[in-house]
Design brief:
Helix 5 (99-115) packs across helix 7 (157-168). It is built from 11 helices and 12 strands. It is α/β, with parallel strands linked by helices.
Length: 315
């Protein structure tokens, strides 16, 4: 059994173990695989595990030994799963492993806007408090979340987790989803009403042809000038040029993003350098406990396949 992990570093930079996988056969774990080496490293493999390294049809057609594809992610657009389905090759993903972690980062981004922790900490370390004539000072307006309205677009597991945290802060929660169902302390509404009423808008919808570029100039024009946009879903949901223009023009108050259209971003990404736009490098899923859970599910997926009963199939 020949096994290859094409890009294992982000999942396991050294604080977790691949020993369980080495015990399954002849296994090679690569930190990263550049495009020109994908075919060579996949050749002759029975099992391929990938995170963001693409497995397209033209490559898969050459891999005559391939019997199983494992993903180190929930999303599976990186693999031509339709080809795999045609050939009876199981493709298994990692569902629902990062719900709590993503919801946590949503509020880290929100609180950076309301409390400016990094700005004030930097000012203290820079000597401003030591030289201050008063016992305290603040460099930005400080805002309470209690009583503010959070609008959630997409109300799956992560959206629900975000709603629960918002309720604990005393926020009013409204949501827009194609499948509304009663949920404690949440009112469902249209997207236009949500944008008009929300102090914070948090995106939690999947990337589809309908949602790609959804957050465009028209969408942003319907938000309050005092509102903040949060996106921890997929970068392609947001038209970055439109968001950059809205932020620079003061049409909305700020943004907090964990995902961008292109990752890593190019040096000319229009959102880089905008002061009221906080950007983290796609880290919502990256906590130790979260990655440990991911690895556990990956192991369960592989062992289930080897036992003849694969689960977490994407098709």
């Amino acid at each position: 059994m020949k096994i290859c992990v094409l890009d294992g570093f982000t999942t396991n930079p050294g604080d977790l173990s691949w020993d369980w996988l080495y015990g399954c056969g002849e296994c090679t774990v690569y930190d990263r695989t550049p495009a020109e080496l994908i075919a060579e490293r996949c050749e002759g493999c029975d099992i391929i595990i990938t995170n963001k390294t693409p497995l397209r049809r033209e490559l898969l057609e050459t891999l005559t030994e391939l019997k199983y594809v494992g993903l180190l992610s929930t999303g599976y657009n990186i693999v031509d799963w339709e080809y795999c389905k045609e050939k009876g090759i199981p493709v298994c993903n990692i569902p629902s492993y990062s719900t709590s972690a993503v919801a946590q980062l949503v509020f880290a981004l929100i609180l950076e806007h309301t409390n400016s922790v990094s700005v004030h900490s930097d000012s203290v370390h820079g000597g401003e408090w030591s030289s201050c004539k008063d016992f305290c000072y603040w460099k930005t307006p400080l805002t309470e979340l209690d009583g503010k309205t959070l609008g959630i677009i997409g109300f799956g597991k992560i959206g629900k987790a975000v709603a629960k945290i918002a309720s604990a802060f005393g926020m009013k929660v409204i949501a827009c989803t194609n499948h509304p169902a009663p949920f404690e302390n949440v009112d469902f509404t249209s997207i236009d009403e949500l944008l008009a009423k929300s102090d914070f808008v948090s995106i939690h919808c999947p990337l589809t042809p309908l949602t790609e570029g959804m957050v465009n100039a028209e969408f942003l024009s319907k938000m309050k000038k005092t509102a903040v946009l949060i996106n921890t879903s997929r970068g392609q949901v947001v038209d970055e040029n439109a968001l950059a223009a809205s932020l620079k023009n003061g049409d909305i108050a700020g943004a907090g993003l964990d995902v961008l259209w292109s990752e890593p971003p190019s040096a000319d990404c229009p959102l880089l350098g905008i002061k009221n736009c906080f950007i983290t490098p796609h880290i919502a899923w990256a906590g130790f406990e979260t990655r440990e859970r991911l690895m556990k599910i990956c192991k369960e997926n592989v062992l289930a396949y080897l036992s003849g009963s694969p689960f977490n199939l994407v098709y």
